[in-house]
Amino acid sequence: MNTFFMSDTHYHHKNIVRGTTSWSVTEGEHFKVRDFDTLEEHDDTLVERINSLVKENDELWSLGDWSFGGYEQIALFRKRLICKNIHLVFGNHDQHIEPINSPYRKLFASCQYYKEMSLKVDRKWGQVQKVKLILSHYAFRVWNKSHHGSIHLYGHSHGTLPDAGNRSMDVGVDTNNLYPYHLDEILDIMLKRSVHVVDHHNQNTN
Q1: How many CB atoms lie under 10 A from the CB of residue 6?
Q2: Would residue 34 count as lying in a domain?
Q3: Residue 50's CB: how many other CB atoms inside 10 A?
Q4: Which of 110, 126, 137, 124 is nearest to 187 (CA)?
Q5: How many distinct structural domains can be found in the chain?
């Protein structure tokens, strides 16, 4: 089983698409809209790119802002993805899925506001490495075990938040040409970075 991460898919969100937006878009802005003529072209491309990587028995973590355009788009987007094991970390636009009695929760393997994962990964030459991941829709300045090298994955900012140079990463699809990230891609980037200590915590504290 392969594990993938993504955020801010915004399926069927007309204002995020160049050809259908009502937003004021300034030439040269770092992020505003996605370069598609129609909403259908955007949705189809998003689904195709996710399905091209994430297979039926893989695991996919979505860090929020799943879809737009009403209740029916939640289920439609989910139905179009072939992966059986999709987990959702709520974003600010997942209000239809959030309520504990929402029928749309059953579309996902799990739903939560925040997630910590401890993994043992086989990196190179048979060496097993322990990795801790902290998942949230929003970027944190510090997070659990950040001073011990844990990795923080987030979305929300669509690639516009300045890179802090630490072990945190925006996994929004706008940062990866609308593709999700494989866990190995993330580890290849993050484990090369040094651990940044920004408060009183250090290697000698818990």
Answers
A1: 27
A2: yes
A3: 25
A4: 124
A5: 1
- The domain in which residue 83 lies consists of 3-190
DSSP label of 174 = G
Which tens digits make up the pLDDT trace of 28-67?
Answer: 565 678 999 999 999 999 999 999 999 999 999 999 999 9
CA pair distance 19, 122, nearest whole angstrom:
44
- CATH number of the domain where residue 132 is located: 3.60.21.10
Tokens representing 34 are 């996605």
For residues 192 and 123, the answer to whether their CB atoms sit within 8 Å is no
Task: Identify the burial level of 193 via C-beta atoms within 10 angstroms of its C-beta, where 0-12 means exposed, 13-18 middle and 19 or more buried.
Answer: middle
pTM: 0.92
**203 in any annotated domain:** no
